[in-house]
Structure formats: C-alpha cells, structure tokens
Design goal:
Layout (H helix, E strand, L loop, with lengths): L1 H29 L9 E2 L2 E2 L5 H10 L5 E6 L2 E7 H4 L2 E3 L1 H9 L6 H4 L5 E2 L4 E3 L2 H12 L10 E6 L1 E6 L4 E2 L1 H13 L4 E3 L4 E2 L5 H17 L2 E5 L4 E3 L2 H4 L23 H15 L6 E4 L5 E4 L7 E2 L1 H13 L3 E4 L3 E3 L13 E5 L4 E6 L2 E7 L14 E4 L4 E8 L2 E12 L2 E5 L10 H5 L5 E3 L1 H10 L5 E5 L1
Parallel strand pairs: 1-6, 3-11, 13-18, 20-28, 26-27
Antiparallel strand pairs: 1-2, 3-4, 5-7, 8-9, 10-12, 13-14, 15-16, 17-19, 20-21, 21-22, 23-28, 24-25, 25-26
Amino acid sequence: MRKKIKAIVRFFVLAGICLGIVLYIGIGFCYRGRFAPGTFINGIYCTGKTTEEVNEELKSIYPHNSIWVQDGEEVQFEISYADLAVNIDYTGQLRKLKGGQNPFLWITALFGSGQTSLAPQVSFEEELLKNALADKLAPAKEPAGEIVEIRKTAGYVLFNGREHVLNFDLVYDTVAAALLEGKTFADISGCYEDLPYTEEMYKTLSLWEQVEAFQSCRIQYDMGDATISLTPEIVSEFIALDEAGGFLLDETGRLVIDEEAVASFIDSLCQEYDTLGSARSFQSTRGDIITVEGGTYGNKIDRDAEIAYLTQALMEHADEVHIPAYEEEARIRGRDDIGDTYVEVDMTEQKLYYYEEGELLLETDVVTGNVRGGHKTPSGVNYVYAMQRDRILRGPDYESFVKYWAPVNRGIGIHDASWRGSFGGEIYKTNGSHGCINVPPSVMATLFDMLEIGVPVVMFY
C-alpha cells in the first residue's frame, strides 16, 4: 500500500514539475514579441507591450513641440516642429532594448529595476528648416558683409557690414544639431565671423578715421548762463561736401572745413547771446513786466575772432572749454546779463531804485529830461562806465557843477542837482534836465558810494 501511495505522489510531483515547465515556457513564448515584466521606459510601464505600442506612447509624451533660437542670453525666435515636419521615433532604440531581453528569462526581470531612459531618433525636412531660418533672419536691413560706408545720422557713423556677420550655414548646422539632440534651445552666438575687406573698403575705413577724429572734438562754449557742447551732430555740419555729396578733401587728402557752416554756427550764437541793444523783458518795481530796447549795456560776441578760433580748433581736434571773445562784454555774460545788482530808472514814475543782490537798498524821486524842451531821456539798458567827483557839466546853453557824476550813455548820466528844490512828479515834462537823471544831493552821495563801474542802469517809461 505504501508503495502505491509513493508512486502516486511521485506522479503528481513529476506532473507538477512538467506543468510548471510548460507554463514557464509558455509565458516565455508570450513575451517573445513584448517587453519583459518590470520594464519602465522614460517613466512608462511597458510590461507586455509591443515596441509599436510603446513607441506611440513615448511620442505622445515627448516634451518638446518647438525649438527656440537664441543669441547668447537673448532669445531671438521660435520655430514650431510642425513647420519643419519634425518626426519623433523611438523604434530603433526600442528594438535594441527589446532585443537584449531573453523572453525565457522573464522571471529574472522580476528582480531587476527595469528603469530605462531612451532618446528618440529625430528627423526633419532640411529645406523647411532652411526656409524658416531664412525667413526669421531676413529682417536684417543690410546685405550681410557687402557694405562698408559712412552715413549721416546724428553726426556721421560707420556702417561696417564686414564685422560680426552671421554665417547662415553655421546657423543651420547649429539649429539642426540641436534638433537632432532633442534640445529646446539652439545658441547661435558662435555663428558670427569677420569678413575680409576689399581695397575700396580699406579706403572708406581710412576716411572714417579722419571723420571720427574730426567730429569727436570736445569743444564746449561757456556762454555764462549755459554751456554749449559741440556734439558730433553739430560738428559734422562743419565738414565740407562736394557736389555729389561726398567728403571734400584737400590736396593732402585731409577733410576740408565748410567755412560757411562755421560762420553760420557763430552767427547763431551771436543771435542768441548778443544782448547789446536787444529787447529785454524786465520786471519793474511798479509791478509790470516791461520791454526795454537799446542802450549801451550788453554782450556782443566778436564774430570774426570766433570764426577764426573755431576753424583752427576744429583742425586741431581741440578738447577744451572756450569763453568767446567779445567786442562788448557786460558785467554778466549770458542772456540774463542784468543780474540782481542794478539801477532802475522809472521815468514815468520819476523814480530811481538801486538793487544789490536782489535787495532794494535805495529809492528816490528824480527828474529826467525835459520833454517839452526836446531833451527827453531815452529808454535803454545802459551801464555806469565812469565815476567822477566835482565835475563841471557843460552844454551849449548851460554849465553846472556837480559833486557826483556817473555817466551811462554818452553825455547822459546820473548826478546830483543842488539847484533843484523838488524832485519827482511831472517836473520833467516842462522843467526837466537836458537828458540826465537829476538826484537829490543827499541821496546822490549815498548812491555814489554804492555804485561801481559796470553796474547796469535800466531806464524806461
């Protein structure tokens, strides 16, 4: 009986072993065209899946759908994969991986990590990429590498198309390589090159050195209340041009200065900053803003001297601050040459005021030129050009002794008038002076001590 039981057990054990072997081999046959258990590719569970199935899944999760072209740190543009007919395919890599798996050793795969990273094979249409790059790079306004010329903008500038020229073939190779490697960005900063010059281009570069040196002078005009810098925009106008618009050169090959342009610039300075005899707006003590024209006070630039100076300074590429030469120079240079220390003579009110640094220090009644007698005191901005004590004033029909005399415009001056008993009001209309400003003697003594030669005297009605 025992023998019979042992035989039955042996039979079932042997049958189980055979069945296990058959099942194991059968499972192996199932994995012959599929990935082994525990296989993960790029994070996807691939056990039991065919290479075609895995390929489609991997393509669906491919992270890129375009490539960005950048120049160093600066992004230039984006090109869509769809525009390049880009194809992503993992088939070759998957087959290689699958070929390395023995389907009949499937049980060993259960004890491995099974994690694998694969890169796809990327393909694209070359002509589409070339066209896309040409379209994106086309906005460059100049034919690359063909131009070296001097142009006029704010001054002259050199456009050099031979330096740092983008090599299209290198750009294509760089972007294509980035696509094939599955990169998101392609950096084209290394795709630039310098091209050789032609003989004509060398001549232009040599001329540019002259132009650049000429317009890079650093002359500054100190106009008193303003500084005018001779920028390249201004200086470039001083270069003479020939009839064709090219640079005019002398017999030694040097640039020629446009003398008319230099004179025109100096004339513009004179027009803006010459104040002698010009109309000035003046805030009167009585409250209104009046316009005063004429007189002996003001600045007048020496035009001829300045034209000569600027012509020479330009030739020498001067770098300096220059104060203009003046035929007449006021106490203060600039457009506001009266300043805050001056004498004000209001001939309508018959008042004289003396301001020092903006503070009213003296106010007095005066008598000005006799209107009825034809000696009306003229308006104008004048100045004290002399100061004398104990002077005899003489005219065709008078001779008067004064203790204090401050002439301001030819024979017209400010002085004491001891022969008058009253001042101000309307005396000037019928019993005025011969044109001078008569001041009470006691006041004139004080005023005389305050005055200095050069002080402006603003006279108006």
